[in-house]
Every structure is written in C-alpha cells, then in structure tokens.
Predict the 3D structure of the following.
Amino acid sequence: DAKTTQPPSMDCAEGRAANLPCNHSTISGNEYVYWYRQIHSQGPQYIIHGLKNNETNEMASLIITEDRKSSTLILPHATLRDTAVYYCIVRVPEGGSQGNLIFGKGTKLSVKP
Amino acid sequence: DAGVIQSPRHEVTEMGQEVTLRCKPISGHDYLFWYRQTMMRGLELLIYFNNNVPIDDSGMPEDRFSAKMPNASFSTLKIQPSEPRDSAVYFCASSLSDRGLGTEAFFGQGTRLTVV
C-alpha cells in the first residue's frame, strides 16, 4: 500500500504556480520523498526527490517540512503541458527489500488557460 | 542510452494464449520493476528485481503470471493462459541504488495488452 496521501484533483491557471501537497506521516528516517508525473498514455516521468532539505531543479521545487511528515511540489509557472497525474512516493533507494516503488492514486492536476 | 525499451508496444491476443512482454533496462541499472495500469486499479507494482534477483513478487496477481530476469539487460513478464481481465498497459522501469549517481526510476513506453 502507498504510504502517502494526496488530494485526488487540483486546478491551476496557466502561468501561475501549482502547489501540490502530499502527506507522509509515517515516513521513516531513511526514506526519501520522490515525485513523478504521468501524462496521458505515457510512462511515469521522474520530477524530483529529496530527503530533508528543500530541492530545486529545472522542472520543480520540493519543500519538505521540518518533521518530514509532509511535502509540497511546486511548479513555478504551470503550462498546459503540465496537465498530468502527479504521484508522491516514499522509498529507500538502496538495494534489497526496501527499494520497492509503490504508486498511490496521485493528484490529477488540470492546468487551465 | 535509449532508455528503457519495451516490446511489443501493442499486443492483441485471444483468451487462453500465452503472452510474453519484454523489457530492456537502462545499462548499469540494478533495479527493474514491472507494473500494470488499469483505469480501475491505477498503477500496480507486480514484481521487482535487484541485481537480477526477484525481491518482492507479492503484487503478481496469480500463478498465471511469471517474470524472469536471466541477465542484467533483459527481463520478461509472461501470462499463461491469458484472460480478458489481464487487458491493461504494462510498464517496465529501471533505476540505480547508487545515491551518488541518482536513484530515480526511468519508465518504458509501456505495452498495451488486449485479450479478447
């Protein structure tokens, strides 16, 4: 079972920031937070991941609360092409039995003109 | 690298036939995952391998499903016999466990299976 909770859907106006929340209250000390998205009919695409510090890359920013029980993915200037289902996942990226990558239901983000 | 390669992209088969889906992971990756996606159940993890060894197959729906990874560059997911309820998109993904090089998973384009 997924260890995360996300709202089923969100809307965002084109050009505005999209802030996607995720709760992971049972996260373990060695688990990372990963975000993926799936555009219709394509395979999931990696966006960003982090352990406890905030992270930023060319696609998005990841803000993790100090207690690590929740995080927010920020798309700073959403475009219509960002319309997708966004998945938040916690995972230990090491060998063996902790490495499973379990997807929940995700958040369907609709970016509107 | 061409990314994760899955074949075939589309498969239509009759109920009762054997179906074999193929996956070539990214070279050097030590994790390989098989997923099934349907509208009703979303993206389900079926099985994953680490260094060619199956680690967790608890997601495999029943004995009709089997997966193998004979070497680091190839994996198969077999359904025998196939049933209409197996119709879905099957994804393969691979990743590294080396945090220094990045641990994100890369997905193939999927195989759309239709069993009639």
